[in-house]
Amino acid sequence: MGATGAVEAIFSVVLQDANEAPSITSGGSFTIGENTSLVARILAMDPEGSALSFAVIGGEDGSLFTITPGGELSFTLLPDYETPADTNGDNEYEVEVQA
């Protein structure tokens, strides 16, 4: 009969952190004067330090806004208090932004 034996080996396992989603750190509401295009600069951070870009992705009034890759959120047309352009006409605009 043949000899039986055992073999041992040591393995190294490296655990890597998952790519976590960025988070927006700016407040959730802004107040501006009428006839002002720039609403705010949206701030965000990525846990891994990756470069971020921004996009308007929705909201009842999202079509009335643009955002630069650097996070500057602006009205596409100057807002007029006496002639609200938001969906329900109350001068409170809802826009959803993604980082």
Secondary-structure blueprint:
Elements lengths: L22 E2 L13 E4 L2 E2 L9 E4 L6 E3 L4 E4 L20 E3 L1
Summarize the structure.
The protein has 99 residues and is mostly beta strands.
How would you describe this structure to a colleague?
This protein has 99 residues and is mostly beta strands. It has a single domain (1-99), classed as Immunoglobulin-like. Helix content is 0%, strand content 22%. The strands form 3 sheets. Strands 2-6-5 form a 3-stranded antiparallel β-sheet, with no helix packed on it. The chain is rod-shaped. The N and C termini lie far apart (68 Å). The model has no long low-confidence stretch (mean pLDDT 93).
Low-confidence stretches: none
Helicity level: under 10%
Tally of helical runs? 0
* CATH architecture grouping: Sandwich
Number of strands: 7
Kindly provide the radius of gyration, computed on alpha-carbon positions and rounded to a whole number of angstroms: 25 Å
Give the distance, in angstroms, between the N- and C-terminal Cα atoms: 68 Å
CATH superfamily: Cadherins
Largest sheet: 3 strands, antiparallel
**Domain module count:** 1
- Gross morphology: rod-shaped
Fold-level CATH name: Immunoglobulin-like
Estimate the strand proportion.
15-25%
Could you say which structural class the secondary elements and strand pairing correspond to? mainly beta
| Mean pLDDT metric | 93
Q: Strand-and-helix sequence, N→C?
A: EEEEEEE
**CATH class category name:** Mainly Beta
Tags for this entry?
0% helix; Immunoglobulin-like; 3-stranded antiparallel β-sheet; 99 residues; two-stranded antiparallel ribbon; mainly beta
